[in-house]
Amino acid sequence: MLKFVKNHMETITGIEIYPLISLLIFFTFFVVLFWWVFTAKKEYINTVSQIPLNDNYKNQEL
Fold this sequence. Notes:
Blueprint: H1 2-10, H2 17-39, H3 42-50
């Protein structure tokens, strides 16, 4: 089965760009997520982390 898929993929022209695009999207997503984690305000993180524990979270502003 894998041999069939591999041979079929080799016949498609221009397919070698798709793994590179996938890697770039994956890498970009995690770099942006990593940047957001380190630049997020501690007050916001603490407020959001307390939401599951509060019964009246609808009345609080984030």
